Amino acid sequence: MYSLIIYILMLGANIASLFNRKAKLLMSGHRNTWRILRSQRKEDKEYIWFHAASLGEFEQGRMLIERVRAKYPDRGILLTFFSPSGYEVRKDYKGADIVCYLPFDTLRNARKFMRLARPCMAFFIKYEFWQNYLTQLHLQGVPTYSVASIFRPGQIFFRWYGKHYARVLDCFTHFFVQNERSKDLLEAGGWHQVSVVGDTRFDRVLEIRHQAKDVPVAEAFASAQTNEGHVLVAGSTWSPDEDILISYFNAHPEERLILAPHVVSEAHLAEIEHKLQRPSLRFTQATAEKAKEADCLIIDCYGLLSSIYRYGQIAYVGGGFGVGIHNVPEAAVYGIPVIIGPNNKNFREVQDLIAEGGTFEIKSADEYATLMKRLADDPQLLCEAGAAAQAYIQKGAGAVDKIFDAVFGSHDQ
Length: 413
Hints:
Largest sheet: 7 strands, parallel
Strand content: 15-25%
Shape: globular
Structural class: alpha/beta
Strand order of the largest sheet: 3-2-1-4-5-6-7
Helix content: 40-55%
């Protein structure tokens, strides 16, 4: 049944590649993996393999990759992605010796990959449980680790009909999970090679904050804010988020808005500008002086959001009215309250931040307006919420150290 599903997915991706750019990148990238491995793998090196489904998972594993690279420069780093949204952004990542796609999980592909890559160790980040690849690693005695993983009762491993597939978990040498609930589920199923280490993203966002770039245009924009309102930094937004944010913004001249949409395309930027009824400016067309005169600064490029959050008094993280919430810790680390939409229930850190009072969920434009008024009228609430957000991130840090020490402290390197 598993193999049938994989072949159906392959067929669907092949058909979609005829008219969908992302699917075309996926299929051509998968085929290119074999050439990359043959041409770039050095015979005199042992390779440690890190696999991330996409960009978010890569960010969760990035600090561990870089820690291994710094400690063991003689080892090669092999980094694989399944999705174009990860590979196309990080294909030139300097922290790895080889970066390529991981082809669909057929038995033939898994055997071929292992024959060409020959990893000495493997790390699968968060949600990756490819049966054939993991089985081949297990058969060849390669230590294999699940990093920053989360398990829930509804997952197939813990359902009566998933008992056969659940055997894939036997292939892991150790699970480094984010919470006690995951550990309890695994141990109840008979998997006792588990440690609770927390979320590696907390280490990553703290590092990003430490390395944050100065963004003079955003700084100038924020400095023009009066004491009457706030600068809200809205990151990774989609159209449903923007409908709520911009409607409120248009009606409240005391507020200023830095808007970083998830999709930066001319069509989407034009859509945003059409909704705005107050002076706006695109970042790539701005100077510090021009930025002071605008009410809304639109970030029309990638790579700056994690540094720009620090210029706001409030953050809004998009995705909660559709695809799922984006990176909340990236904003919370700056000690500002974070507002999100309702599609966030599968994100443990978001649920914790809501409970701690550092993040607020809104389900409608009316709820957003009510919350913004609360924050405007109660400076103490604003301050306490920001402090709670930052304290939660600080308290959760340290997962990378725990994983690194557990794995490499027990191997003769």
